[in-house]
Design goal:
Layout: E1 2-7, H1 16-26, E2 31-36, E3 49-52, H2 62-75, E4 79-80, H3 83-89, H4 94-100, E5 108-111, E6 129-134, E7 144-147, H5 151-162, E8 167-171, E9 181-187, E10 190-198, E11 213-216, H6 221-232, E12 240-248, E13 251-258, H7 272-283
Parallel strand pairs: 1-2, 1-3, 3-4
Antiparallel strand pairs: 5-8, 6-7, 6-8, 9-10, 9-12, 10-11, 12-13
Helix pairs in contact: 1-7
Length: 293
Amino acid sequence: MKIGIVTCSDYPHLTEPEKTLISLLANHGIEAVPLVWNDTSIDWKNFDCLLLRSIWDYHLHVEIFFEWLEMVGKIQVPIFNPLSIVNWNRHKFYLEELEKQGVRIIPTIFIKKTNSFSLKELAIKGWDKIVIKPAVSANAFLTESFSINEINQIEAKYKPIAKERDLLVQCFMSEIQTTGEVSLIFFDKKYSHAVLKKAAHGDFRVQADHGGTTLPFSPDPSMIATAQRILSYIKEDLLYARVDGVIRDGEFILMELELIEPELFFHYSQGAAERFAEAFLNLKNTLTFPSQI
């Protein structure tokens, strides 16, 4: 079996923690090859399966990425996570669907692309501070926080963006700057490990690119159970999932459900890469061809 581990041009040979996957899979007779997703010289039909990993620049090339997904669907190369999941998860309005299922999410206003962007609705929300972000983004791209007193400035700045992109306006969760954001990682919907991410002083973005720090974390059983309930709403197989959230008043609140290209923090938990490889071995026999988009 020959599979492609799909990455981006910044990490053409994979990130350091994920390079070990090549040898782990080779031990089971599987040839794993790193592939840059937008490398036009690649013949994707030469691979039995594709694993999406560090494609961390796709949000900068959204239309090209969507075309790539369409191509993968047309040539019917199986992909993990499944193509249907990628298409659902690539747009953050999936949070609204989960909320309707009873999942507690950050209080959010979902704004579809519009020529008349307005934040008048915030006046009745009682939020002191907000975060605004595109519905298709990664690594805090075009994501900013504002005081509610800055509505006029926000509207002026985001009106041209709202003409081109759907947006989310969310209540700022102060826990991000105090207790931090928890990421629970699952392979084949089974809990593997967790990390705690904290923003740099004065910032709210927890990504390392923005000065954030990450530590191993031991969640209590109720937190793991909550994350598992969230995943239970998804009926398709998931090779990997990362459930991101904060704790407020003892309850886990979902920030994002990362099912496309989440960092999985292998290096923060002994045996994590092995658990990922084992999950792939368990699921590879269930592979089905994705339907054409």
